[in-house]
Design a protein that fits this description.
Blueprint (H helix, E strand, L loop, with lengths): L1 E3 L3 H9 L10 H8 L4 E9 L2 E11 L6 E5 L3 E2 L2 H17 L7 E5 L6 H9 L3 E2 L8 E6 L4 H6 L3 H12 L3 E5 L1 H19 L6 H12 L4 E8 L2 E11 L2 E9 L8 H15 L4 E6 L11 H8 L4 E4 L4 E4 L4 H15 L2
Parallel strand pairs: 4-6, 12-13
Antiparallel strand pairs: 1-2, 2-3, 3-4, 3-5, 6-15, 7-15, 8-13, 8-14, 9-10, 10-11, 11-12
Amino acid sequence: MIKSISDSVAWNDFVYSCSPYTFLQSWEWGQVQKTTGDDVQYLGFFEEGQQVGAAIVITVNAKRGRHFLIPHGPIAKTEVAAMDLVPELLEYLKENNKSKACAIRIAPLLISSKQSLARFKSLGMRPAPLHVHAELTWILDISESEETLLSEMRKTTRHAIGKAERSDISIEIVEPAKALDRFWELYKETKDRHKFTPWPYDMLKAQIDIFDASDKVFAVVATHEGKDVSAAILIHFGSTVYYYHGASKRLPSSLPANQLVQWTAIKEAKRRGATSYNFWGIAPEDKPEHPFAGITTFKKGFGGKAYDYMHAHDLSLSLRYYPLLVIESWRRYKRGF
């Protein structure tokens, strides 16, 4: 049985009990999506009166085609249990498609395997043209001591941190609401340098404001000679801190501010009681020309492990899905993914 849930505390408490989970299934993330005008459903799966699963369902009102989006869901106590919820969720959304969505898009938090891919294919789903969220991610266990974490880093990363700490780079953990404008200036410069599609200012503000209301976000900013040179915005949900937004000036190797920002964020994550630090997306090893290749080398320098989650999959609900498919396939080609 599927029914809507309206209790934010009960929602997050259940999400915390699942394995795995991310902030993309948090109550706060659903509220962020509502600020864009999208409809959000908090759906709970129940068996004999007990909740066994959850899924945030966003109705994305895109010009290229309105569709349902389930970010990193559905989730349950185990990956196997989460997979078993997918057929029920698909049927529920097909039967309750009041918005006339043209497709259901699921970006599951399931390890990619032949079995999981075959299961989605058997349900009539196909790989989405674009990725929705980070799929191949890099996660660091930060439960060890700072000394151990430093010793397990790549030598060049460890030396860069030491060099930055001895330099005149200043580092601070900034109140999120005050960090946005400082981050935004660096973000615009980073966008121009790397040619990516940026988050709109209002969306970043909504993310910060909503997660800050429950102390689930913090920011780290590095300055040099009185100017901001590197910054990160991080979301703390449950036992994990996520490096979700980063920006910096083009810096010479003699000013390793980016490494110091990450190390400061990791230490703050430990102070907050987190045991994992999620660096978010990285590039596949067999794609050296991938747009994320450079940042991947940087992230891996801190140590950690790759987790390869399934690519997003679509289920067409009408012929209106095909313009969405064509437009997004073209966008993927232009981006070089």
